[in-house]
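Posting for a labmate who doesn't have an account.
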Amino acid sequence: MNNAAIRYLGSLMKELSHEAKYLLVAGAVTGGGLTVIANALNPAELALVRQGFSDECVGALWLPASAILPTATACVAFVLL
């Protein structure tokens, strides 16, 4: 399921508090940068990310490993701000 569907379905749930809806959107936005296949903009992202890998080949193990720090930073920013 993609992030837009998750956000839409979450917005339909009346019993979710505003804080829970915020965290739902924050989680979808934060995790959305890690998907290489699901989003339309990812060919452009992949072209940029590929330059940081040896032989310009993005490995399935190295992409999440290299995204841990920026993703964690975004998570902390969404929770604290």
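Reply:
Got it, the structure tokens are right above this. The CA atoms of residues 51 and 57 lie 8 Å apart.
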